[in-house]
Amino acid sequence: MKPLFLITARGGSKGIPGKNIRPFLGKPLLYYAIDTARALAPDTDICLSTDADEIIRAAEAYGLSVPFKRPDQLATDQSGSYEVMRHAVDFYRQQHRPYDTLVLLQPTSPFRTAQHVRDAMALYADELDMVVSVTESASNPYYNLFEERADGFLERSKTGNFSRRQDCPAVYAYNGAVYVINLASLAEKPLSEFSKVRKYVMSPHDSVDLDTPLDWAFAEFLATHGSLTANP
């Protein structure tokens, strides 16, 4: 496996303005992702993809060179992660630095550690499209998730005769922390079309993802009350 570690950090966050460089427990949120990647690879195999000058300056102040500034067309609310990943991979291919695997680390998972990433990478095999980090979901389509029928009434999303959620088949939600992606698969199709996907399960605590001010406050509460320690 020859992985490129990609950190994606767009500047135009609306849920938490400026979140990627906003201090979390005393240092910019972005630095947690950089620290994780640096525990696994040299800086030459770490790529920060961003459209924002202030994020570039923050990374360079932390000693990480930023190889390019993301094009404006890949920095809108409508821009997809697939195009951003392909842009980064193509950049290195043009530099005659091909990789066979992409490890995507989003900055919004401050409790993800290098060990989490190592464990996910250990599950990867060439025949897979991806290994992705997940957490077991408390909402279950066999029990407490419903869809509206054409007549306006609700019915369970999946049929099953379960009286307790604990008896239902486990279901999982992507937590956004770790993606280990086969670049041969990515060259053919986006992640949503991958069929050979293996899960890497993380605890609900470690799966905290910062998307809203409430998420941020909750993560700070967990960290300051000793339930969690953010990735050093």
Short structural summary:
With 232 residues, the chain is of the alpha/beta class.
Number of domains: 1
Q: Identify the strand order in the major beta sheet.
A: 4-1-5-9-6-10
What is the element string, with H for helices and E for strands?
A: EEEHEHHEHEEEEHEH
Estimate the strand proportion: 15-25%
Keywords: Nucleotidyltransferase, Transferase
Pfam families: CTP_transf_3 (PF02348)
Protein name: Acylneuraminate cytidylyltransferase family protein
GO molecular function: N-acylneuraminate cytidylyltransferase activity
Features:
alpha/beta, about 230 residues, single chain, two-stranded antiparallel sheet, six-stranded mixed sheet
Architecture blueprint of SSEs:
Elements: E1 3-8, E2 23-24, E3 27-28, H1 29-38, E4 46-49, H2 53-61, H3 81-94, E5 101-105, H4 114-122, E6 130-136, E7 146-148, E8 154-156, E9 172-182, H5 183-186, E10 197-201, H6 213-224
Parallel strand pairs: 1-4, 1-5, 6-10
Antiparallel strand pairs: 2-3, 5-9, 6-9, 7-8
Can you give a write-up of this model?
This protein has 232 residues and is an alpha/beta fold. The protein has a single domain (3-136, 171-224), classed as Spore Coat Polysaccharide Biosynthesis Protein SpsA, Chain A, CATH 3.90.550.10. It contains six helices and ten strands; from the N terminus they run βββαβααβαββββαβα. It has helices at 29-38, 53-61, 81-94, 114-122, 183-186, 213-224; strands at 3-8, 23-24, 27-28, 46-49, 101-105, 130-136, 146-148, 154-156, 172-182, 197-201. The strands form three sheets. The chain has a six-stranded mixed β-sheet with strand order 4-1-5-9-6-10, with helices on both faces. β7 (146-148) and β8 form a beta hairpin. The longest helix has 14 residues, at 81-94. It is globular, with a radius of gyration of 19 Å. The two termini are 26 Å apart. The mean pLDDT is 93. Keywords: Nucleotidyltransferase, Transferase. InterPro entries: CMP-NeuNAc_synthase, Cytidylyl_trans, Nucleotide-diphossugar_trans.
